[in-house]
Amino acid sequence: MAAGSGLLLRALGLAVLLLPVVPRGPPGAAERRCFCQVTGHLDDCTCDVETIDAFNNYKLFPRLNELLENDYFRYYKVNLKKPCPFWDDNSHCGVRDCAVKPCPSDEVPDGIRSGSYKYSEEASNLAEECEEAKRLGAVDGSLSKETQQAVLQWTRHDDSSDSFCEADDIYSPDAEYVDLLLNPERYTGYKGPDAWKIWNSIYEENCFKPQNVKRPLTSGRGDDGGHTFYKWLKGVCVEKRAFYKLISGLHASINIHLSARYLLQDTWSEKKWGPNVTEFQQRFDEVITRGEGPRRLKNLYFLYLIELRALCKVLPFFERPGFQLYTGNKSHDAEMKNLLLEILHLAKSFPLHFDENSFFAGNKKEAAKLKEEFRLHFKNISKIMDCVGCFKCRLWGKLQTQGLGTALKILFSENLIEKIPESGPSYGFQLTRQEIVALFNAFGRISTSVRELENFRNILQNMQ
């Protein structure tokens, strides 16, 4: 027993030696190493970090959190059994915290289960006719003219080229409702070669980067501290630079969630989750990451601005009297719509919005070609989410990529949104319930990340 204990102690000692060394210094030094460069104006924007922090943390975040606890937004239908379309890999995370617990059907409100395209009680019967006709594969001449029109519109919507994501087939027998509040995004233990393969595929094959340009912190020859990479990034068009920053910002946000909700204690009697400062430093400390950490955090703020702008732009779609967050509880649904509109008007009031008009400007033919490349690259990333081995990570990866994809769809559909009639169907621009749930929950994750940064900043200020 004593010999075994000695071996265990020596092994633990070796493990400690192998951990990244977090530099020590005077009080406040740890905070400065993560946040000293995360201040002031953001590249390609007129906005600054401090304005976003104040607006998000004290105005928008509390209201958004309240909205996302509502039934309409907490239930998300997802297929976690789809095979990876890019490589043969049936490996799944065996850690128990990777598991996702789907909802029994009787726990999901009737109004949500009855059909994800129903936005109001009045539209329910029409939507059911539309869905049935689509399943039959034709527009039946016996249907009313209004129903035929709606069927054709939904078919065009489903087959349209405006989608930035590979959405799950919600009618698949493998698609299940998941309660997002009972399956929160947090550290699961999923890491190593499998997790690295996902992000490497995203960055190397889908971010417009030439193969001979090495990303910062990649192993092997050619790592020059990011000099070549950032020289390349600065020289590309604003759209491709924005694409990389969006993906980097999403990656940073996910890492913040994992650091903020880390498994600190796991005993037979309880589990304790909370902020892991060492984990946060390993991902964002300027010294440990050789300058990459602060850049990642700035990209998070860029992502925040893009999704906030989308919420501002989509306001007319939700303001229509006929739109409802339909769950079957009429009074509560009306109350939640009022809260939703309050949040969207608050988003519109933000003083320093990102100007998306710089995207895809210039020569129309070249701009259209670049936009299509942009869309297809992002759609490819949404497919990669089906290769994630941890089911909980896959759930939140799919939701957040669909949410960002929906935000991009909104930004690039401005002309259609402007033409939405105040009453009646919106034939030019549509959002499914899945897209709506993903859009707001994805922004909720970004908003939470910005709020968590304030918490980590306060903790690090008191550290050496």
Q: What does this molecule look like?
A:
The strands form two sheets. The protein has a two-stranded antiparallel sheet with strand order 1-2. It has a two-stranded antiparallel ribbon with strand order 3-4. The chain is built from 18 helices and four strands. The two termini are 39 Å apart. A hairpin with a 4-residue loop joins strand 3 and strand 4. Helices cover 55% and strands 4% of the residues. By secondary structure, it is mostly helical.
Q: What's the story with the biggest beta sheet? A: 2 strands, antiparallel
* Structural classification: mainly alpha
Strand order of the largest sheet: 1-2
Distance between the termini: 39 Å
| Mean of all residue-level pLDDT scores | 82
Q: Report the strand count.
A: 4
Which stretches are low in confidence, meaning pLDDT under 50 for 5 or more residues running? 1-21, 116-143, 154-160
Q: Could you estimate the helical fraction of the residues in percent?
A: 55-70%
| Rg over alpha carbons | 23 Å
The coarse overall form would be globular
Content of β-strand = under 5%
Which sequence of SSEs, written as H and E, runs from N to C? HHHHEHHHEHHHEEHHHHHHHH
Number of helices: 18
Concise overview:
The protein is mainly α. The chain has helices at residues 2-18, 29-35, 49-68, 71-74, 110-113, 124-136, 145-159, 193-206, 227-235, 238-260, 277-284, 292-313, 315-319, 330-348, 364-384, 391-411, 414-418, 433-461; strands at residues 75-78, 176-179, 262-266, 271-274.
Describe how the helices and strands are arranged.
Elements lengths: L1 H17 L10 H7 L13 H20 L2 H4 E4 L31 H4 L10 H13 L8 H15 L16 E4 L13 H14 L20 H9 L2 H23 L1 E5 L4 E4 L2 H8 L7 H22 L1 H5 L10 H19 L15 H21 L6 H21 L2 H5 L14 H29 L3
